[in-house]
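Can't attach files on this board, so I'm pasting raw text. These are the components:
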Amino acid sequence: MTGFLVRRILGALVILLIISAVTFYLFYAIPRDPARAFCGKICRPETLTLIRHNLGMDEPLFVQYWHWLVGIFAGRDFVQFGACPAPCLGYSFATQEPVFGAIVDRFPVTLSLTIGASAVILSFGILTGMLAAWKVGQPLDKIASASSVVGASLQIYFVGPLLAFYLVDTAGLLPRPSYVAFTEDPLGWFTHLLLPWVVLSIIFTANYTRMTRSQMVEQLAEDYVRTARAKGMSSRSVFFRFAWRGAMIPIITIFGVDLATLLGGAIITEQTFSLHGIGELAVRAVQNTDLPMLLGVTIVGAAAIVVLNIVVDVLYAVIDPRVRIG
Amino acid sequence: MTFPSSATTDAVADAAASAEPAGSGPAIVGRSPGQLMWRRFRRDRTGVVSAVIVLGFFLVAILAPVISMLYGKDPYSTYGQDRPGLLNPYGYPIAPNGGMSGEFWFGLEPGLGRDVFMQLVYGIRTSLSIAVIVTVLSTIIGVVLGITSGYIGGKTDYVIGRVIDTLLAFPSQLFLIVFLPVVEAAIVLPEEETPTWLRYVSICLVLTVLGWATIARLLRAQVLSLRTREFVEAARVTGASPGRVVFKELLPNLWTPIIIQATLALPLYVGAEAGLGFLGVGMTEPTPDWGRMFQVGANVYHSDVTYLIFPGVSMLIFVVAFNLLGDSIRDAFDPKTKR
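---
Top answer:
Structure tokens for the assembled complex are below.
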């Protein structure tokens, strides 16, 4: 187990290193010059040179990358802006703040969105999938299948504003979506984020319904299920105590990936409801060509995916004792 | 699970043959896998209806100029601004339901006052052409690299495998919007205006670069299991060249997963392209684009929800139809799969 973890973590670090190097090179190899943007409209060549020097941009690319890498662990000093303490992912020229700080500020929003949406996706998706599998071929199953086809084809940027119009503007059932800190007002946190959760989970839920259903149907045809039935176990017990365990394994894999996508910024949902999360930060950075910020967000997103993949692999072993890791 | 199509078509051929009562009825005819697939597909009513709808969308895209001529409007004129009495001082259509009327079938765009129907019709062109180009490109790249990786193995496989792993570890939604400005900045100087064609090309490019890895990984796995099968070994033993093995032995068995993956991918690309437009990094004005219609719609829905509903419902119909069509094609190619 320890050996497995060490190997996987090393592998993950290598992947992150590659991603950061590729991204760094791509971003800084382009002619759009952050120093020029920072210098303003009337920019004397000597001022530009000074700024570039202060930003460390007059050095070769790999030296810059090295500084960036060291900065994550040791922090950096920008002559222009002052110190950037230990996990320093660079300094955003457009918003004039350290990248890491900006991401940390936005993180609770994205995390809240992720947690709530995951809860909806897992409970609702798996439940309807199980029900459909329980009643295979019956009307309930057909309704579940049909609605999952439609659900999977919906787009957040369509359903989001539409539901906001009917539920918030017209009916006034829910408050306008925004972020209320959980620590300050748990109920407000819930009601203000409920609509984004539902909208974000619609497209995912359909997927989980489908998957759970087909997995359950497949599991119910397995030998161990037949054995359990032959030994006199009731269908219900077999279904809810045995079969679902086997069915959950691929679901966990997919959920790991989806969770990472959500954490990496549920960009469209955040943009739809003007929630100031990491995804919205990325969109704004794109509009400003704020490369340090983009680099930071990308790395954080990639790290989320890589870490969650490891967690998923460990979870396999917990759920399915046959899986050996090592 | 997908199985090599040769095995499945044999099974179906057997089933079809045994279904015919011996002696009576028409003589048993030999049919190619393609013919069998077509016969199965024709019997699937959902599939045929969806195919008609999808074809309809493609026809609208191709015939957009003809529709524009018959309808008498174009997607660029700002009718609402040019003619008084259509938009109120706040820029919203005066007529109810977003300004729908006999003249402007689907109403007017708030603000600029362009014709919604024409925006929609020409927008299909943008969305569909990008989705088709990206699907074709990423499928070709994925097929070539996947088969190469699986068939050659060794170091090549290792390198391609790691590239695929890395690409799949990228937060793709994020990368889409992050790389668009990078691709463009690499070509256009900051002072210049980004030309429309460049945005079009870079959207295709970024979607393709991030899209090929899925199909490549799938095909690599398929080839890995196929290459140890007897028929491939037999071909090798009899001295077939690698090219022959790949094209005559492996590829016929891979058409099913390739086509299935492509049909799964296309509606995703339609959604992704519109998503880019919605986030403001997609096609730029004045090119009509569904994504930008969603962007405008999301800004004006408080006052004019009709404008949002047209692109939303059109896209829903297209994606549902295409997904159902994909399911039917899958069933027709590979009747053994359970859904």
